[in-house]
Amino acid sequence: MNFKQGIALMSSLLAFGLGAEAGAVCTQTGASQADRDLWNTHGCWQDFFLWQYQAYGLKSGDWSNRGWNDACNVSLEFPKHWNASYLLTYGMLDNFAQSFHGTADYRGTAEARSSNFHDSLYHGITDRTDVFGTFSPRFWPWDTDKVETACPLYNPNASNSNPASRAGDYMHEGWHANFDKHNINNGNTGGHRPGPQGSCTINGCDYFYFHGISKYAFGAMWENDGTANRFHSPNQVQVEFLCDVSDQSQWWIPLSVRQTAAADANSRAVSRFINGPGYSCGSPRPW
Amino acid sequence: MQSRKWRVISHAGAAVVTLGLMSGSVAFGADTRPGSEQGSNIPPSRVIAGRKLHQPPGLSGTGEDARKSVKSFVTWAGQSVVEEQGDAREVLRSAAQNPDVIQAFTEEILEAHKSGDSSRALVALGLLGEMRTYEGAKFLAEFVRMPLPTKGTVIEGELQEEAQQARLQAKAVAGIAYLRDPEFDREVLYQVGAHPSVIVRAEAISAFLWNRGDSLEARKEVEQYVRREELLFLDRVRRVSGETAETFNRKLTAYLKAHPEVQAPKPEPKEPRPPEEKPYTFDVTPPKF
């Protein structure tokens, strides 16, 4: 056992001791209009959530008091989690002439299975309120990467508590997993560059690697050639996904979902990139 | 965010399992299934087909009736789809002369904002902006000038309450610009430089330009107000719904040519990690929509 593993073992015993503290949950008093509007398009589709929990590697223990056995209660975390998965699984238009990327890319990034996008991962949840989500790479060779989403994506009064922003975080955290698979160092500030710097106004900053539309075949977003010409950063993948929800989603996606996606994309695009703002999307026309 | 703290705890969890201190399996697929007594077996394609399109509720009445009418209209508009935007616009146009309806929209916006339901507030702000009324724009201007919160939850150095309000104010400033009125244009131009949030300043620039067909004259006019360090925003690439690759890529090429400084540096490699031992291979096709 080396020094790092020794520390991990000691920490594990500490964590085990703190286990009694588990049981806290996010605010479970309701859901945003965007969550409810999307929910109404499926009315709690059982076949889907029975597929989703496996596709995302969910573990019942993580979600037990968060709707695991009450999967149709949209006020709870698990139903909100699978509602966001439903959006990215069925809601994209996949128009090669207009979309940044396709369903294959967004599913590959979000879902648990090992692929070109990332090694195996699973989705957990945390009660933290100081993050939207986290990515924790495996330590032991037999361990699994972990994506956790946090209360600011579930609390009904939080601005990112909507299906597009939640799914957008699956992209962001999934892209940290992509960097681990492809051996990319994106910085030491939570996997980002320190900030503020350049046009980035927050603590964790990325670069935007601009690319045209139709430049990546659907399913090829994971590709990089080791240069800035063919590459994505976590915030960029998130912005491009949100823009595709806003402008390139299926006809039946409710406007509340599209508009919250555009608002998140546009605010993220002007505050998280060192080399100037990312694309803007949505329409400046109010409705 | 990549978490070091949670990585340690994750590793710790694995160690606990190894030592047999925890019961229960963590293997994929070994868990119990989620469930609900209310689950539906009807695929969404049938649920969606059952929703009647093009039936917006009316906007009318005075006092409490107007308030109820606006509430139900905002709820309908949130769940409406792109092909119903014309229906919403028609109803909004026909109600633009009703001061009680406009007043009710302002109350709905403030109520949704106060309750923290940003998605509902965003919808209501968009609808009021689309009405293009003097009183509505006056409210939107006041809304944009509301001081940003200074306390609350900080994520990655960003105060969430501030960002939440700024997103709504960005929607409001788009509504003001859409009126295309000299008096309110002055407010938009003022906010281009003066608003404390870059989220609002960026939207004010974009909306001002878009409402003038992105003309050279509009660019010259707004340029005087843009902060020096934000001049790049004047050329920012905007993707609009339905835009083809050809037009978008042409704009992007011109942007990158005019601003070579936005070229990102080469990505940095890091030490490879050992390959995973047990890849998770669940590859079942999602249920048919």
UniProtKB/TrEMBL annotation, chain A:
Keyword annotations: Signal
Domain of life: Bacteria
Signal peptide: 1-20
Protein name: Uncharacterized protein
Organism whose genome encodes this protein: Corallococcus praedator
UniProtKB/TrEMBL annotation, chain B:
Extent of the signal sequence: 1-29
Residue numbers spanned by region Disordered: 258-289
Name of the protein described by the UniProt record: HEAT repeat domain-containing protein
Compositionally biased region (Basic and acidic residues): 267-280
Species in which this protein is naturally found: Corallococcus praedator
UniProt keyword terms in alphabetical order: Signal
Lineage: Bacteria, Pseudomonadati, Myxococcota, Myxococcia, Myxococcales
